From TrEMBL:
InterPro entries: ABC3_permease_C (IPR003838), Lipoprotein-release_system (IPR051447). The keyword RNA-binding does not apply. GO terms for biological process: lipoprotein localization to outer membrane. PANTHER family: LIPOPROTEIN-RELEASING SYSTEM TRANSMEMBRANE PROTEIN LOLE. It is found in: Cell membrane. Its main location: membrane. Residues 237-360 form the ABC3 transporter permease C-terminal domain. It holds the Pfam family FtsX. Belongs to the ABC-4 integral membrane protein family. LolC/E subfamily. It is a multi-pass membrane protein. It comes from the Bacteria. It comes from Campylobacter californiensis. This is ABC transporter permease.
Amino acid sequence: MVSKNFIDYAIKLLYKDRADHAFSFIIFTFIVFILSSVLFISSSIQNDLSLSIQNSPSVVVEAVRAGKKDTMHDGYIYDIKRINGVSDAWGVVDGYYYFGQKRIWFHIIGLDELDENEMIIGEGVKREMAELYYEDVFNFLTEHALIPIKINKIASHSSNIITNDVIYLNPTTARAVLSLEEGEYTKIYVDVPNENEISQVALSISNLYPNTQALSMEDRISDIRHLYYYKGGIFMVIYSAAMISFFILLKNQISLAYGSKKREIAILRSIGYAIKDIIALKFIQNFTVATSAFLLGVALAYIYIFIFNAPLLRNVFLGLEIENSVTFTPIVDFNMLFLIFLFSVIPFLAFVIIPSWRIAIADMSEAVK
């Protein structure tokens, strides 16, 4: 059992050598900050998008032709409604409009509640339009005509993660903007009351129309998680940078153990410290450094993501085409934090304690020379 006096001595020794441990503390804090920031922003986006999907239809059907999205017609809806377990199916207009003056894409969604001459736009769309002085009316340029539409209102900021690049239009107007014919749909939504039948219904639709992708709610949530776990490979770049920093940290720890600390350990052994006492001393010192750096790194990441809304890193996960001013929902995955703790603190302690142990069991007369 380690006594209170022993712990006090270890802490005082740590304070005396604070300059030696400062580098390790800073690097360790930086590593935890990077990993925790990626974890927080990824978990928050996944949570918000998953919640939005849970309010959407059970199955979403899209047609594919020559590897690109194709349109569907009322015949698809008629056949899908006849599948066992389907309570309703309806076509929707959903596509993208290229805003050539800014070289960006707007997401067009048909909404029955709107009149044909009005629209609702996301905050990102509003900013892009305002830069070219489209304040009240926006002119859609199509291959057949110029379509002026009144900007009715702006989508709420709380839904910005979904609506930032979205323009809601009446389906008739949306068809005109996207150059679709009457009765053409880009997606079909399917309602399946029994959750246990959703996967079977999706499979039946794919078998009925092999040119379609029928994605269940579970498939869409899985796609979102996959996307944000590996978003653009950027996470791996950040992760690699963190690991390189970590190896620099470990190398520094080994240098400390084999350098100036070698003589210190030899002196402690010569005045009667047992090997287990030296191991305990090094454990207390470095566990204190690692734990305090871990907590500081997590706290800084929380402030960076959920209070300052992750400048720079936000664009990595949400895309750069239209800047998104989303406010992230605070989501803390304690299981992942625990894994970060295990895979950072334990290797850190191992790279300090093992060299210290090897010095402690060596010939002390050589060590003090």
